[in-house]
Amino acid sequence: MQVKITNKSKHDLPKYETTGSSGMDIRANIDEAVSLKSMQRSLIKTGLFLEMDPSIECQIRPRSGLALKKGLTVLNTPGTVDADYRGEVGVIVINLSEEEVIIEDGERIAQMVFCPVQKVTLTEFTELTDSARGAGGFGSTGVK
Length: 144
Description:
This protein is mostly beta strands and 144 residues long.
């Protein structure tokens, strides 16, 4: 499936790094480095603009290596870029480490994964069918 992209950044287009990759790394497109103290967050611009078929969405997800090595993650993960959004893709990054972290221009800060979107019709009912689980949630099935 084709996705149209406008690249107004100083960097190459995102690409799959390996044949088995589900996501493409996206880079910070910033004029100067961004310093994040512990628990501080910032919107990092990418210079990327997308146009895609309404049957898909673009999810912005954390990079595992960045999370492990620097404690950086995407705050609203997965972030959704809707098919009808035409603005610049931005990434809300948060520093979960205890140390200050610097984000440099061109640094790979997140990955984008394209996923199908299933539209549904909601039908209102006054009661729902019982199930074995019922209303149990948040650990109700145990931890071991």
